[in-house]
Amino acid sequence: MKRLAIIFLTAAAAAPALADDVPFAEPFQKANAAPGGLADLMMMTQWRHIKTWYAIKRKNWDLLDYELGKLADTIERAAMLYQNIPVEFIEGAVKPLNAMRKAISEKNIAKVEIGFADLTAACNACHRAAQIGFVTIQTPTSLPFSDQKFLPPQQSVK
Ligand code: HEC
Questions:
Q1: Which keywords, in A-to-Z order, does the entry hold (predicted)?
Q2: Which of 156, 157, 131, 137 is nearest to 53 (CA)?
């Protein structure tokens, strides 16, 4: 929540300049921006969204906690670098991430899954606001990472 307060304070200072035709895609400080811009950060977010889902499916709590931390970091980075993103859409993604972390501590898989659905909805809400509603995120249907085991280490098969 402390982090969000910082975003609140700085958001007012950011002029809503637009890169290409995508709102929210202009970095606050160009020199510190992700190499390929916001879209590249989003690609990482997409991979981690998939990994998170399979960590849930395999009940790999440690991996799940790890991936959620990475997702939160990436979203926070996007918020810091692209400060014309309205804070409510960042909050929309941060809230389900926090809810999922709480559910992990309770080992409550049903609550984790609700959090994942809320997170996916938050991805799409921000995309619609950014006029890229055609980038529609859904619950993953297959796992593209054949070089990584998603079951906890003590269980042998994938
Ligand atoms: C706070 C706003 C916001 C949230 C939340 C958000 N996105 Fe994005 N996303 C964007 C914007 C803006 C772009 C367009 C960036 C550009 O084109 O420069 C984008 C683009 C993308 C792209 C297209 C990248 C490409 O090169 O094909 C993917 C995939 C993506 N987001 C996935 C996700 C996923 C998965 C989530 C949720 C876990 C998510 N996004 C949450 C704002 C958001």
A1: Signal
A2: 137
To test the pocket of ligand 1, the residue of 28, 40, 42 to mutate (highest count of ligand atoms within 8 Å of its CB) is 42
Cα 57 to ligand 1 centroid, rounded to whole Å: 23
In a domain, 16, yes or no: no
In a domain, 146, yes or no: no
Residue range of the domain that includes 91:
38-137
Q: What is the CATH number of the domain that holds 98?
A: 1.20.120.10
Q: What's the rounded Cα separation, in Å, for the pair 85 and 78?
A: 9
- Number of compact structural domains in the chain: 1
Q: Which residue among 3, 28, 88, 123 is best mutated to probe the pocket of ligand 1, counting the most ligand atoms within 8 A of its Cβ?
A: 123
